[in-house]
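Lecture notes, continued. The same structure-token format from the folding unit now serves as the input rather than the output. Read the line below as a description of shape only.
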């Protein structure tokens, strides 16, 4: 992947429905050239697919980030699957030194307790560090039957052209465009690309950042990361209980990884940076995805 590929991937992660023409105007190359680049990234596995994500606000869902320290006795692939066997887990990854990271979603204190008990009692787990995440995105809006009618074909193909959605739903292209615009403007639904973090020789890693709370806020540190490392940054998890941020980034090689860590540490407000390099990772079923599928089915 060159720099332009990385920029295109970042755009698709923010909105995978962005057109070849829009990307063409943005980067000054032909729409066909943009299309070929995206196809190449799909074929190489950098982009593993596309998805619709309903905002946590739509379901009242809270998110949890966790780090599990283990005794290193279990196979990484087996352990990731074991973590993901819990219905609340959305994603899990193995990291260096027998550490595993996970993201979960829950809708009540009881479910949060269930997640914690499950993780702490997994074979080989020595400690479990769990953080409720703040700063989750989205707003709540009422999805009409017509909204859900449009979302039906988009669940199968989030990049489906407007004209094809209109044909499948019996709505006019103009109305389809307006309905999708309403979903995006309200930030109730996101259309995203699924990026394989370790594909194309990329090196995913997660960093733990502590900072001077007297000098800067957590939100300012998170914004600084996204602004200064737009092509490296993938996700930020901001703890609701402690002055700590976990950020997921990617590097081309170990040299770039070390340089990125050193650069972050040079921020005058950052007091500590520690990094873990990712190995195996996997995505699992999402409650919000299943809820959206159910809503679409019930609307028919």
């Amino acid at each position: 992947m060159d720099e332009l590929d990385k920029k295109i991937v970042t755009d698709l992660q923010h909105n995978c429905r962005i057109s070849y023409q829009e990307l063409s105007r943005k980067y000054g190359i032909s729409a066909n050239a943009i299309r070929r680049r995206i196809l190449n990234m799909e074929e190489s596995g950098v982009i593993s697919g596309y998805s619709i994500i309903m905002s946590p606000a739509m379901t009242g869902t809270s998110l949890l980030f966790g780090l599990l320290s283990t005794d290193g006795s279990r196979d990484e692939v087996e352990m990731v699957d074991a973590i993901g066997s819990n219905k609340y887990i959305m994603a899990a990854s193995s990291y260096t030194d027998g550490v595993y990271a996970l993201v979960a979603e829950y809708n009540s204190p009881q479910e949060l307790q269930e997640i914690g008990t499950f993780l702490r009692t997994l074979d080989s787990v020595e400690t479990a560090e769990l953080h409720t995440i703040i700063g989750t995105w989205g707003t709540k809006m009422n999805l009409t039957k017509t909204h859900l009618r449009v979302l039906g074909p988009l669940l199968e193909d989030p990049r489906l052209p407007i004209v094809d959605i209109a044909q499948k739903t019996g709505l006019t292209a103009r109305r389809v465009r307006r309905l999708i615009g309403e979903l995006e403007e309200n930030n109730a639904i996101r259309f995203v690309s699924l990026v394989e973090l370790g594909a194309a020789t990329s090196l995913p890693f997660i960093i733990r950042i502590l900072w001077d709370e007297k000098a800067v806020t957590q939100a300012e540190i998170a914004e600084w990361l996204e602004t200064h490392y737009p092509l490296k940054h993938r996700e930020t998890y901001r703890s609701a209980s402690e002055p700590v941020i976990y950020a997921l980034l990617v590097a081309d090689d170990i040299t770039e990884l070390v340089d990125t860590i050193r650069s972050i540490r040079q921020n005058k407000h950052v007091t500590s940076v520690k990094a873990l390099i990712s190995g195996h990772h996997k995505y699992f079923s999402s409650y919000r995805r299943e809820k959206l599928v159910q809503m679409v089915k019930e609307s028919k």
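Point for the exam: The chain has a mean pLDDT of 93.
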